[in-house]
Amino acid sequence: MNHRRAPEGTPDILKATDAADTRQAKADQHAKLSEKLKSAEMKQWILSRVIGPGVVDLSNLNDDPWLKEQGIVPPGHRNAPDNSGAVFWKLLDTVVQKENKQNIYTLSLANNDFHHLRSLNRLPYSLPHLRALDLSNNPVRTFGELDVLLAQGEKKGKATAGIGSLKSLVELKLSGCAFREKTISQPKGDETYQHEILRRFPGLLILDGVNLNRIVFAIPRKPKIQHTDDERKRMSSRPFTFPVDVQPGFIDSDIVRSFVMSFCAKYFPIFDSDRGALLPAYAPTATISVSANTLISRSLQAQEVARSRSSRPNPVPFEPWTNLPSRNFFRGANSVETRMKTLKSPTDQAELLRWWRAVPQTKHPLEDPGKWCIDAWVLDGEGVETKLCAMIQGEFQEMPSGTYRSFSRTFILADAPQGSAANAAGWPAVVLSDTMIVTSYLSSGAYDNRRSIAAYGVTIVPPTPVSPGANATVGAPPNQDMLVEQMRQRTGMNVQFATMCLAQNGWDFEVALKNFEEIKATIPAEAYQ
User: Fold this and answer.
1) 269 and 190 in one domain?
2) For residues 131-163, b (16+ Cβ closer than 10 Å) or e, as one string?
3) pLDDT-based confidence at 2, cuts 50/70/90?
4) One domain, residues 513 and 447
5) DSSP-assigned letters across all residues of 188-231
6) Position 457 in a domain
7) Mean pLDDT in the chain?
8) Distance in angstroms (rounded) separating the CA atoms of residues 513 and 245
9) I want to staple 447 with a disulfide (CB 3.0 to 4.6 A). Which of 99, 201, 329, 373 is the partner?
């Protein structure tokens, strides 16, 4: 039967007949495939495709003689039933992994005429242990098709994605896929291609058979433990202890407190009323960005907020924030060019003022200190070279609607030099970096004075002081602190990543530095924060 699009001018009744025939053909294929599920022949065919321990070859399924003989249409065929992929993956799970007690680590789906990957949406659920996946030589048109292999949490940028995720995937082959060939044929196409793949699968080590030479810091995942009802009762009856009570904020010294509070007292009223007057407060090379997190929180705090929603104005859409554009790497700012556009600077004052006018007007609760949480500490430097980090959490009303939003804002501050525009305008500090994250309203309940866990029966037990040298890294030389500091200064990495780099290279500074230079283009941004 010919299922191609009907020629122009075909009567509607014939079009409807052709569509009905197509639906009937798919239904017949579905029934035929279901009949084969439990047959010994089907199981034997599945096992014939196992070419090694944990290795399954399902390439060229459209040319498989047994499937043709049985009239089974495989995933990728244009007449394949919608659930054909789920059926094949379930068969692999049942026959190979459960009955034969052998996890599948490598799977080839090359040359299967996949124009889209919707039939792979259940693959991560059936084969969660996959380490290598071959999708080469399939006419897949867009990068977005790969998103079916991601768990919902991964699509939203969460590191712990839960079920439905190929957490163990370290090798992916896409050679010959339409979107790959199109992308790499363009200027800087190799960089764009690798960027799009790695932002979806950050744990990859091998792409299209090429070693990526990346440093990957493994995230340990503890197995989920199911407790019986009796175990839960025994656990809940034990007295709960915690090393410190919930604090409203952390500021490491009175000098820092005075400095940061003076800055905030001047900054936020002006931000609410006249943003143009903030220009002198920013260093000429400062960077400014706003990111909107539109996801709904599922924390206990969010549940409490939901119960009191009727006492606040109805929320309005996030579009004014996301259209700035927002510096949200998982929603819109997913290319290098777009991400650069989300960074603003006083270097172009006209553009910054235009952008600030697009940022919705705000009204912060300036008169209520209980609505603010401020953490501040010395970042580095001494004297007039001192740099501070101030992390400020709180809430504001988006005007004119009055909608409540929560925010987190991080400033990197330095002393305003004599003769500078900031000093002349009376600012105690000059802003080097300003990062703002806006979320749905979460209230101040996570950090105000009502959140003492000691008030709910938790015993506060301060930690035992650790003797000097107790935290020294095993196998590290006595001068490890000096080596870490040298590595940090030479590379710009933070202490954690500098330590990892040295430890992975046997604490040989020159070898570690050489390795860093070779792979620094692939090191994640958090290594420099």
Assistant:
1) no
2) bbbbbbbbebeebebbebbbbeebeeeeeebee
3) very low
4) no
5) THHHHHHHHHHHH-TT-SEETTEE----------PPP-PPPHHH
6) no
7) 82
8) 41
9) 373
Q: What are phi and psi of 287, to 5 degrees?
A: -115, 140
At 315, list the tokens: 């929320």
> Is 124 a domain residue?
yes
Last residue of a domain, one of 434, 451, 468: 451
pLDDT at 162: 58
> Are 126 and 195 in a shared domain?
yes
Distance spanning both ends of the chain, measured CA to CA: 61
- What are residue 410's DSSP bridge partners? 391, 435
Residue 105 has pLDDT above 50, yes or no: yes
Structural domain span for residue 316: 254-451
Tell me: do 374 and 426 sit in the same domain.
yes
Rounded Cα distance, 13 and 7, in Å: 13
- Structural domain contains residue 508: yes
Buried b / exposed e across 51-66, counting CB within 10 Å, b at 16+? eeebebbbbbbbebee
Q: How sure is the predictor about 3, in pLDDT bands with cuts at 50, 70 and 90?
A: very low
Q: How many C-alpha atoms does 112 have within 13 Å on its Cβ side?
A: 24
- Tell me: do 39 and 135 sit in the same domain: yes
Dihedral sign, CA of 148, 149, 154, 160? positive
Q: How many angstroms separate the CA atoms of 364 and 372, rounded?
A: 10
Query: Domain ends where: 211, 246, 277?
Result: 211
d(CA 308, CA 294): 20
Q: Which two tokens stand for residue 185?
A: 């044929």
Residues in the chain: 529
The number of beta carbons lying within 10 Å of the beta carbon of residue 427 is: 21
Same domain? For 312 and 421 the reply is yes
Q: Determine the residue type at 443.
A: S
Torsion of CA 263, 268, 269, 273, to 10 degrees: 130
Q: Is residue 103 part of a domain?
A: yes
Q: Do 110 and 136 contact (CB within 8 A), yes or no?
A: yes
**Amino acid code (one letter) for 165:** S
Residue 417, domain CATH: 3.10.450.50
Which two structure tokens, joined as six digits, stand for 477?
Answer: 């030389």
Query: Do residues 441 and 312 lie in contact, with contact meaning Cβ atoms separated by under 8 Å?
Result: yes
Which tokens go with 91? 């068969």
DSSP bridge partners of 206: 171, 211
- Provide the whole-model pTM: 0.49
Please name the residue ranges forming H helices in 223-293: 229-237, 254-273
| Domain count along the chain | 3
Which tens digit of pLDDT belongs to each residue from 351-406? 999 999 999 999 999 998 888 999 999 988 777 788 999 999 999 999 999 999 99
Q: Which amino acid is at 389?
A: C
Q: Are residues 98 and 194 in the same domain?
A: yes
